[in-house]
Write a structure and sequence with these properties.
CATH superfamily of the largest domain: HUPs
Order of helices and strands: HHHHEHEHEHEHEHH
Number of helices: 10
Structural class: alpha/beta
Distance between the termini: 18 Å
Strand content: 5-15%
CATH topology of the largest domain: Rossmann fold
Strand order of the largest sheet: 3-2-1-4-5
Shape: elongated
CATH class of the largest domain: Alpha Beta
Number of domains: 2
């Protein structure tokens, strides 16, 4: 039930959904004052959420910074969270990535640099209706193509969200006699705050290793400050989804 509810809330929390709702409301209301208010509000929100400078500043403040490889000590295990492959793409003889492929590539680099000895990939499928191959399996295939031995990679491929991942990983670490302090949690920078909160709730005080940054260095060029960009909506959608997710997890007692 929580899984279905979270998907519904994600849709309702999109800035584009808010703007569309205001435009529809303006089209159907007979009150001239409210019609004008809704139209002006929709235009204002459109300009705000399409401003790339504002969106980038907000994302940059939310994302957790990463650390240089040279500054990392060696860890026993790298726990990489899935959530970046494209489902139901054919032919099925390869792995299709959207964003977040460096969750895989940076994990492989960590292994080859000797910063982690083994890899645990955590994540099943996020599809509510159709069935597909678990994402953890796809991550493993990609890592093996990059030269990581099969024996190094362990899978947890049954969970559907970050909270379930943390709950499932805890007994795996216990069975391996690996402490949280000897693990790295690897996921996208925008997703790391919620991931750390879930793992801390599960009793795992783990060190983050962030990848897949959506924010860019600050730029004061006129086109970045003034010209509306569709990319800004993508940043806000990611941010709002994470904020709503954090709130929902807090209400549910997941963090």
């Amino acid at each position: 039930m929580f899984f279905i509810l979270s998907k519904t809330i994600d849709f309702l929390a999109m800035p584009f959904t808010w703007i569309l709702a205001m435009v529809i409301g303006a089209a159907f209301t007979r009150n001239l004052r409210w019609k004008q208010r809704l139209l002006w509000m929709s235009v204002g929100l459109l300009l705000f959420f399409s401003n790339n400078f504002i969106a980038n500043e907000a994302m940059n403040a939310w994302e957790i910074s990463t650390v240089a490889y040279d500054e990392l000590r060696a860890h026993e295990l790298g726990i990489v969270l899935t959530g970046s492959t494209i489902p139901n793409r054919y032919p099925e003889d390869r792995v299709y990535f959207a964003r977040g492929a460096d969750r895989v590539t940076h994990t492989v680099q960590l292994y080859k640099l000797g910063k982690i000895s083994k890899i645990l990939v955590s994540g099943g499928t996020g599809r509510m209706v159709t069935k597909e191959e678990p994402e953890a399996n796809k991550f493993k295939k990609a890592m093996m193509m990059m030269g990581v031995p099969d024996s190094v990679i362990m899978l947890e491929n049954q969970t559907r969200n970050t909270y379930e991942s943390a709950v499932a990983v805890k007994p795996i670490l216990d069975s391996l006699h690996v402490t949280a302090q000897d693990c790295l949690l690897i996921t996208s920078a925008f997703h790391m705050r919620r991931s750390l909160a879930c793992y801390h709730k599960a009793g795992l005080d783990i060190q983050p290793f962030t990848t897949d940054f959506y924010s860019n260095p600050r730029e004061f060029y006129p086109d970045n400050l003034l010209i509306p960009r569709l990319e800004a909506f993508t940043l806000w959608q990611k941010l709002v989804k994470e904020w709503v997710g954090m709130l929902a997890y807090k209400v549910a007692g997941y963090i």
